[in-house]
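Collaboration report, partner site 2.

Our partner group contributed sequences for two proteins of shared interest, and the home lab folded both. The records are reproduced in the order in which they were received, starting with the first partner submission.
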Amino acid sequence: MKRIFLAALAIMLVPIMTAHAFAAGVTVNGTFTPQSMRHTTSTVTDAEAAFFNPGGFGFADPGLYATAANFLIFDRHHLKDASADTDYRGSSDIYLFPAASVSFVADEWAAFLCSGVIGGGGSATYNHGSEALDSNVFDPTGFLTTQTGQAFTPTKAKVSGSSASLHFTLGGAYEVIKDMLSFSAAGRFVSGAGSSQIEYSAFMNVAPANTVTSKVETEEKAKGYGYVVSIATKPTKELSISLKYESAIIMEWENEVVTNEAVAFNPAIAAGLIAQTAATDGVKKRKDIPAVGNIGISYKITPEVEVGTGFGYTFQKMANLSGDQENHIDDAWSVTGSVEVTVMKGLKVGFVHSYSDNGTHNTGESAGLAEAATYPWVISDSIGIGWEVMPGLIVEVGYAYQWYGTYTEKGHDFENSNTRNAFGFGVQYKFL
């Protein structure tokens, strides 16, 4: 039954629930904030430097700051089952995708605490596609056919799941050379949790009265530790350069079977389904968060116009991913460009374009390799606005549209594509 869950996630839930997100999914920047929709955030030096450029705190104005943000994210999935000449369309709507920080900046040093979603961050449901699709998704091992020697037709095929990993990062920054060089170091704790619910029923083709139903609920939990180091420099007043490294985080997920029910015309079949699921209780699986390196450059062409670019590299091949996935995935990378314009005092508007290579290159290379089947690339375009509505209070809003490279699973005639609309809202406030 665990393989049933993984296969279903590969088709429907991968965009929000698996490791590819660290390079180019929801969590493209480790943490998402509205400012990332209008600016190459790897060079920011305001309160949101805690998320993207901790070293930049050395150049921030002294004071006590707090930030809070949330996103509304709407995924639309299109799955084409060529073997049955049918399409399945689904959605994944995320209403809670938060980020928050508090920081204190003095003349030469700063301290900060920030938290946000670093992996996963939503829920999704797959609910009955085509007959051929459901048969492959919910019984990929052919358990029913093997046990009976007969083919079955699904009448109910539903899987829903949710997953989120939150980071809590505590650190400090020090201005080594005034107005020129700043350094930051921080420790990180990550807590992850996920759940799934599976409902399946089918009847034997040659004897429709012979039915099978099953219901499974599972939960997973994990925690891990890491660190972040960052250097920011300003060779000139107009030019900013930053480097950041986020260490890999070991995440060992432990599975717990909460509900395990099955009813069948043959008690032995029901017992077999229950035993198959029970065998996954307590099973631990490594799904580490890969290390990430970033470089950012921004330049003020005029006092009103700033351009920026960023490059990120995710060391996916070095991460431990249980099963065969690490043998089918390369390192990932992303490149970003931005233009931000100060329309008038206190009002900024910016545009960001990015391309991310997930390192998967259509790697759903075997029917059993569910976790490696993910989108090979992501393109994102966004617009954001930052408005200082009153002294010390900045309101941020933004919109991003992303579309994903199509992948096809080898061994199945399934072609999967995805688009995403994201709306961000946030505030920054300076208390002192």
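Second partner submission, folded after the first:
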Amino acid sequence: MLYTSELCWIKSSFSGDGGNNCVEVAAAEGGRVSLRDSTRPSRIIPTTRIAFHALVQGVKSEGFAPVQD
């Protein structure tokens, strides 16, 4: 098991410097990808490269409906 301190987390340059309100991503063992919310860094979501690529493509193409509050 990898701990958060063992991963090199990165965030988008679009996140700005205003605080912790972004999704961070890190390369993990075995060609996997880990995601986390910067406001809850201890909660890590492991996924595959293929699933992460599909997520990124969906976001870029605006393929997701907005979340209703």
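Feedback sent to the partner group on the second submission included the following. The chain has one helix and four strands. The chain has one domain: 4-60.
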